[in-house]
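Lecture 7 notes. Example A: sequence first, then its structure tokens.
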Amino acid sequence: MSLGALSFLSPLLLTALIALPVIYWLLRTTPPRPRQIRFPATRILVGLENKEKTPDTTPWWLMLLRMLAAAAIIFALAEPVLNPERSVAIGGSGPVVVVVDNGWSSGDQWAERQAALERTIGSAEAQRRAVVIVPTAEDGAKTTLAQIAPADARRRAAALIPQPFAPNRSEALERLAPIFAAAPDAAVVWLSDGIDHGAAGAFASGLAEQAGGGVTVVAPQSETALGVFAELGEGGVLQARIVRSGGGAEEGLVHALSARGERLSEARFKFGVGQKQVETTFDLPLELRNQVSRVAISGERSAGAVQLLDGRTRWNRVGLISGANQEQTQPLLGPLYYIRRALAPFSELVDPKAADTAQGIRTILQQNATVLALADIGRLSEASETGLTRWVERGGVLLRFAGPRLEQGGDALLPVDLREGGRALGGALSWSEPQALAPFAEESLFAGLEVPPDVRVRRQVLAEPASMDAATLVWARLADGTPLVTARRQGNGHVVLFHITANSDWSNLPLSGLFVGMLRRIATLGASQSTGGGAGAAADSETTETATGANASRATAASGSDAVLSPVRVLDGFGALVPPPATAEGAPQSEFANLAPQLKHPPGYYRSATGQQALNIVNADTSLTAIGGLPGGVAQASYGGETRTDLKPWLLGAALLLLFLDVIAIMLLQSNWRPGRARGAAAKSAAAIALVAAAGLAFAIVGAGSVMAQSNSGAAQGSTASASDGASAPTKPKIDPRVALAATSKVTFGYVLTGDPGLDATSKAGLEGLVKVLTARTAIEPGPPFGVSIENDEISFFPILYWPVSDQTKALSDQARAKVDAYMKRGGMLIFDTRDFGQGMPLGFA
């Protein structure tokens, strides 16, 4: 039943309101209040009248209090709801199928989807219908859909979390076929993320064809998911492209973060109405730019709002040294011409142009180069070899190209030993025709690059087969199997050798686009020396430290037999880097460039023997489109609207408060209270105890202090907790087993012994009066009150301690203060009565 913005989930219980007149008739009278008469012997018969007395009527305000409490309980049991969700109408009479988009684009608005899912389950429960929950981003092969009760559906819904990959709606539709076949009148509520993902129209049409109870699509009202893609632009500027599926004007910030989460820079972006993508740039020097390990949109909690960076987005500083002097006269034939053209778009080139090779190497190393390319350099001097060895072991990449000088013999900074002389057409080791390149192996750094069919090699330096061991990496071969590019890991760096020249003298490979791709991948192996390792070292340390088990063995393998990139750190559905889940698997290196994130391959950092790469949700080709073109008859709704408020807890709390006020009123009436009339010590104590005890019981019911639970705790538990939680451990008090048994068998109140017999008797009398009232008017049956000594007795048995303060009260010892502190921390309540009530203006009365 609905009354405007107010609805009742159990409207039949409102019929209990007809019992209010009966309740009024039962509660309209109270027993006659005792009349106080002074009892001197000479006046015992004065003032007595022999008339029949009728019971005094209940005061109107007390009657109103009780009627309001009864009405509040009836309304609460009818489960009223303010601003109920009316945007989703569920048709049909079969089960309610709730399709939940829990892909990467749902992470930022996940709370809204959970609220909508709870409302839908509640509507199904009110109609006594079964529920089927279908996540669209899940391993369908391991999950069987079934009709379940709403209570079980709530547990299933609570276990749902966003996944860091796009939803697979076509698979969800296939899994739903048996449900629709068994229940043709099922109704579907699709809690979408508002993004098409390529198949939203077909998915909605499939649902509409099979769901006899109708289909309702719920989409975000205004805000849509944001994604970010980061890359290096012209001149090595780090730029970010933010994408969305459309909407109104929107602006925000995107942060550049280091591997440790430090914010290195930020950039502002602004969308116009209907605009789907914008670009922004970060103004960073080279040293800081190379420390950026991820770019994230501020305030967005999704895997698509985070872009992980690897060596491909690092601006490398590359040194160039040539052994020839032909570049000035014939630049197209120079050994460094094609290397410059290949590396310039994504590197900062350092060319000392020094005639002395050793001096040129020192200049480049002093400028903290990441990669050093040596074209046709023969044997290195001993000093150069020593300096380069230390540089490579710290993470540098030494890239060498063969030439006439290297044919005469190499040095120790080569991945393999070389045979003297070369292999050429018409030579001693001749070819009958130029050799083509073989396809790159799975374990190669160049795996996935396409080999042009017209690339030919006419001459090369040969590797000595006997020097090739398990640590030798062969990244490229000729069609006859001879190595073309070899490498060796040395410390944290690499030594790489092209067995051909860097120009077109020996091969046309430098003239092809393949040469650019090969050099770019080699350049990503380097770590910036200017920051002690920079982005590469930071990212490597982050992933290597988290690699465990099989992942760690793959990540640190030194041999060339490992062709799999293993996940070592992945993104969860909210965009946080976490260890890889049990479902994560390694990915073949040859397929990694075109790999789309999925359950087996979540976005994150993947590592192999040749380095690490990042897999992201958003790439250079990503564009987001809003869901559109829904078939006719499909209802549409939004997550927005007024917040639903359940009034049941508030009404029960109000009824409980009214009942406590009733208890206090009865206590006052039975103590012959009248406004302005003085009361005795017993009446004052009883009223104060009743007031504070009622408040204590209210706190116990709502769980504020867990008082009732604490009252039944054992003696050993209470004393141990007090000793551990207090400021200092008090001496363990002696426990009388009989007192412990009597105090814990029922709810028991205690009062602190003051040493004044009269005051202690008043305290006991007041508590005994409270026990009688609670026993007569509530379901609580407390035991007799106990007098306790704070210094010597165990106090953890009592949920409430009444403590009258007298003029003779002495200061507590340190141990007693620690005991009281522990008692309060465990949930106990202390009522201090300063006994000055009534000396000033009465509290609460005029």
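Example B, a different protein, same format:
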Amino acid sequence: MKKFYVSVVCLLFAALSYSQNIYWRLAPGVQGDYDDPTNWSFTPGGGSAGVYPNGTTYNVIFDRNALVRIDIANILVNSVTVLSGNTATLFTDNVPGGTNTFAVDDPTNALNIQANATLIDSANTGSFKFNLDPNAVGVVNGTWYFSGSNLVPAGEGSTFSVNNIPSTLNVNGRIILRPGSTPVLAQGSTLFFNANSLYWLDADGGSVPKATWNATSTINLTGVVNTLPVVNVPSNPHPVGNVIFNSPNMATDLGWSLTRSLIIQGNFEFINTNNNVLTIASNQGASGSTVSYTVNGDFIVRPNANLAFANPDENHEYVLNILGDYIQTGGIFSIRNDNTLPTLPATVKLQGDFQQTAGTFTTNSTATSTSIDLFVLELNGTSPQTISASSGTIDNATHQVTLRMNNASGATLNTPLETGRISFNSANKGRLTTTSTNVLTIGNPSSTDALVVNSPSNSGYVNGPVRRRTNEMLVAYLLPTGKGGVYHGVQVIPSTTAPSIYRGEYFNFGYSDLSVASPLLGVSNQEYWDMNIDGGTSASVQLTLNGTAVPGAGFTDKIAVATYNPPPTAPDWIASKGTFGTTLTPGTSTTGSVRSDMLNFSQDLFTFGYAPANSLAVDLITFNAKKGNGNSALLNWEITFNSTPEHFEVLRSADGRTFTGVGNVRGIDQKGKYDFTDLSLPQGTSYYKLKIFDQDGAVSYSRILAVINGGKGFLITSMMPTIVKSRARLNVSSTEKGSMQVVVSDSYGRIIRTQMAGIVSGNQEVWLDLSSLAVGAYQVTGYMNGQRTETIRFVKQ
């Protein structure tokens, strides 16, 4: 009896587990009804099976193209297979509201759409649902296509369900939903989009099913007209693969309710919104909480996409994290669209490169704030980043877009860029490297908004030229300049409210020529700035000591701004105090600021200079002397327009050491050019200099010039400096035109180098390039027309 019972159980199990293959037998292109037994065969291409498959004992196999009308309400089979190279189309003809279901049940192979095979589910009217029953397992290696006619009412159509745990569907190929389809039902643990798979939603509205997405899978959204799809995601974290939005028929502006903390493991690409605005973060609920998304790949904006990140009229903090590159080949990207005043920022945090070859990056909002950065592009990578912006700007109409550095490895501009603000107020700061071609422009013209240039330091500054727009007068605008690990900003003070642009670049080493004009005793050998007015009005340059004293300056000196113009304009560092400028005492100060006079500078160099405390009153630009008719010497000089001279005393000497006065010239406000004729020029060589008296009582002196009366001759009156780093200047006086040979020799008299210089009658300057000389003591002598000058000694450092 026991043996019989066991046998019965085994036979019953075998019967339940056995399934028979059954094939569609009609020729390709010939339509047939599912429930017609003559349309099926138990062998490929064989005779009629006499039954149609409806039960778990059947494995339905499509080994040819098939056109099958589903004309019964409910079908249940063990499995469905579409062999490679074939397309099986299942369609319904229900009345509206009618329902057809097709279910599969096999726990190992319930659905198998092979590679290069297609299964089409189509609802001409009513609903048609393909179900993977509990425990069923399926795989899509080819294409599963859902569609319907335009007669399908809203809420009906074709779809599939894999919603019953532990049923499973693995998608390695493509699932496509067209108009006439309805949302897919699934759990994150039942539906798997594996490597390089595709979910293509080509319908208005609809949804992306809850699934497990491989990083290389893709969601392609192409059918949006008036309704955006719902993106269903598993429990937190919420990862999907690549996401592509390409809806050329989008008819209006739309806001997306994407799940917070959504992670796009691949690229997030926007190809076409029909130039209507698509807002990513919309309808996010109560204000105050953070709305964030993360893109592990690239964020891509194409020419016909009009995109906004943050939603209008919702006050959340918004964060878009892009771990790859920002790539824009056209279209518009706006950080935020609304004009209401938010109290929380919207930030795009970029770890890769900013690559814009066309299009606009901005914020359409015109809201302003002086307390927070409302719209931010933050560079927060860990390796060096680059910015290439074909539009030349990431700013908006109210100059509120902030470029924030948060990358210790820094970033480089590969194109010119304008931003409303520049911020280093971050954990990692970082240096933004620019060039004379690819310069950064700070577009916000406010001088009182501290956020325009925020928290520069030795670890965060602009390494290269930086420009700043202004529209206020007599207020200081900061340019966050630095180089070589040293931040040392410079300020410009415009003379009028005229819109202007000023450019500055810092160098953390001394300029190659450190020679100075009286009354300066020296200039800093550790730093200087290259400044320029790129458009607009004159301005003062203000320099601030950053904790160290000016090298060489003593307690009895005063510090001032010194400026340098290359030869032959003014080949010396000269004091730029003038009328508007200020000085700082004592010369050993380590804090405080000094400013220049109002100047029209064009690639002028500025640094700290120092001079005796009773000098720096009048800025002397040029001083010349030459032989006149008879026993006369003609002297002329020029001072800055805003100098305030009381008078000039002309001094003369026979030996270049002891001077006496030979005349006075009264100073006149706003007069720049002066002259004096000495009618009692002695025979031989006479030396002249100016003693300059300022209206405030300060006294300064000019350089010494020589005039030769009677006979022929020439001489070198001075060499500046005599402690040389690279270049030095000779002051030469001659009675005739000629060619002078300058000979440099060492302390043993050996000729080290020679240089020829054309000489004209009168006083002139000859520049020597001594940069190639080794460190040591040298001397210089001039030879012309059989004569030689006295030898001047100098030291090369």
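Note on Example B: The CA atoms of residues 650 and 662 lie 6 Å apart. The radius of gyration is 42 Å.
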